[in-house]
Prior knowledge:
Layout: H1 2-9, H2 13-25, E1 30-31, E2 37-38, H3 47-77, H4 82-89, H5 102-105, E3 123-126, E4 130-138, E5 141-146, E6 150-155, H6 156-162, E7 166-167
Antiparallel strand pairs: 1-2, 3-4, 3-7, 4-5, 5-6
Amino acid sequence: DPADLRDALDLSQSKLMTALTRLEDAGLVEIRADGRVDASAVDGEDLEDAVERAARAAEERRAFDGSRLEMMRAYAEHDGCRRAFILSYFGEHAPAECGNCDNCELGRSGGEPVDVPFEVGASVTHPEWRDGVVQRYDGDQVVVLFDSVGYKTLSLALVGERGLLEATPS
């Protein structure tokens, strides 16, 4: 019973629900329809490993959420076509210029780099961040949405020099 857990752990209702949600996301507990917590998924599993897995999942979620906030900051500072930026955020390809946003009207928008290693929408993999999808190019940078950490902006020069991204079958 969540009330018993809250009392035993001396946590507020919101902190308890946050912790339980993270444990559920990691597959360690199940919150049943009646609100009770089923921890049978941890039966037979090393508790330290289970907690570490849940902490890793929570950290990945924080990184992903932080990257979304960073994308909103990037939008505000973006000097290219805003329509293309928004469409790429949602995984859609758009022409380099819409001709209607503030940046296009001021003549700030430019085209994509001539030498792009991956098409927009291509599935790629990174040694640390694993699977991702190319979202857009901003001059000499590529923006990739990774499943584990969210949006990352990478230098095309470093991607090429260090082989940071590899195409994966979609």
